Amino acid sequence: MNDTKKYYAGLDVGSVSIKAALTSEKRLIASSLIASGGNYKDGARKVMDDVLSQAGISMEQVSGLVVTGLGAESTPFTARQISDISCQAKGCHCLFPSARMIIDIGGQFTKAAKITPEGKIADFLMSEKCATGSGRFLQVIARILHVSLDDIGPLSVQSQKPVEFSTNCAVFAESETISRIAEGAKAEDILAGVHRAMAAKVSMLVKRLKLEPDVVLTGGGGEDAGLVQAVGCALKVKILVPEKPRFSTAYGAACLAEETKA
Question: What percentage of the chain carries pLDDT values higher than 70?
Answer without folding.
Answer: 94
